[in-house]
Amino acid sequence: MSRHSPKFSFKNIRLRLKALLIPDSLYLKHQYKKTFSKVAQLNPPETINEFILQRKLYDRNPRYTECSDKYRVRSWVEKVAGEDCLVPLLAVSDDVDEINYASLPEPFVIKVNHGCGQNMIVREKSEVDWLSAKRQLKGWMRNSHYLNTREWQYKNIQPMVVVEALLSEGGELPKDYKLHCFNGVVRYIAVVHDREHKASVSFYDPQWNYLFIEWGRYEMGPKEKRPETLDEMVGLAQKLSQEFDYVRVDLYSVAGQVYFGELTFTPLNGLSKFNPEKYDRIFAQALESSGSSV
């Protein structure tokens, strides 16, 4: 067991006590009502956010945990789709201090495997305050994403620090293609632009028709030309999503090569509004038309 296990965090002790006092069911339903100003309809769910809430409460597929682990998912992706789509792995350890960062080829990104949005971009090692960086990484290692959000799939992931090569386009982070897959079929594609500065999101259908949709806190992004690797991205996403009724497959396209990013089973934690609001129901209808019952 890593000495940076989440159980040693004072924040996690407080959150664990809160979890004992407020069970997941009560907490998650309260969060939904607080966000959407209504009681969630779960039998059956009528919106994609209600479907995500239902999944958080009742769906205990162990594959969700395996594929939400940013290190273990690599082995699963290699078995399902091959290793060519994997970002080069430079180092991995359950101890932040065990990795020799000075020996790693730059640029690279350091992240933890058991959470969300905890990434450290290193373009030049000489510019990094490594004492401060390691302190930040150890804090991330001690945090429990499950206790923060009650997303069950993160609950039993053993914390690791993972270092991968940094993908870039002209020195900037590449666009993040988020393909929403329903029973193995891509129905919607969200493209995140300018991730390091003022991020925005553009939605498309699989034929690359622009959709006037906002989901979450980001502004609606610009229209752009159809990526040359679109068919390859759709094919890879559908291959990776075959055993799931709903999953978001995140991919990158750099210099004609498609790379795997991550699998997300509870996008935006099921607590973000759509604009127009009707798309909350339309996304859920994609589950019905793809063969799942909601």
TrEMBL record:
<dbReference type="Pfam" id="PF14305">
    <property type="entry name" value="ATPgrasp_TupA"/>
</dbReference>
<protein>
    <recommendedName>
        <fullName>Glycosyl transferase</fullName>
    </recommendedName>
</protein>
<dbReference type="InterPro" id="IPR029465">
    <property type="entry name" value="ATPgrasp_TupA"/>
</dbReference>
